[in-house]
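User: tokens in, sequence out, please.
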């Protein structure tokens, strides 16, 4: 993880490494919170950016709540990659 003062590498937001995930996610969430307090137009984009790399349920819930307050609907099933539909392509019966 590369953190230098208040500078962090945005590409690390999608880094699958658990060592860097928590600190980078926390930084992204805090930046979004600062924008929300300042009532910035960029608040929604900052929270959506933080959500793009969030995999821990606690982090996701911390991000989803303010997004819902902003009127953004989040599909958690899609975010976590849960399969909700599947198709059987073939069915074969083998008889001896």
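Assistant: Sequence out:
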């Amino acid at each position: 993880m590369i953190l230098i003062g208040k500078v962090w590498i945005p590409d690390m937001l999608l880094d699958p490494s658990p060592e860097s995930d928590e600190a980078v996610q926390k930084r992204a969430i805090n930046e979004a919170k600062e924008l929300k307090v300042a009532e910035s137009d960029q608040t929604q984009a900052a929270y959506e950016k933080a959500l793009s790399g969030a995999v821990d349920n606690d982090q996701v819930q911390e991000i989803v709540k303010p997004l819902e307050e902003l009127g953004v609907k989040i599909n958690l099933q899609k975010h976590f990659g849960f399969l909700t539909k599947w198709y059987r392509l073939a069915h074969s019966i083998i008889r001896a």
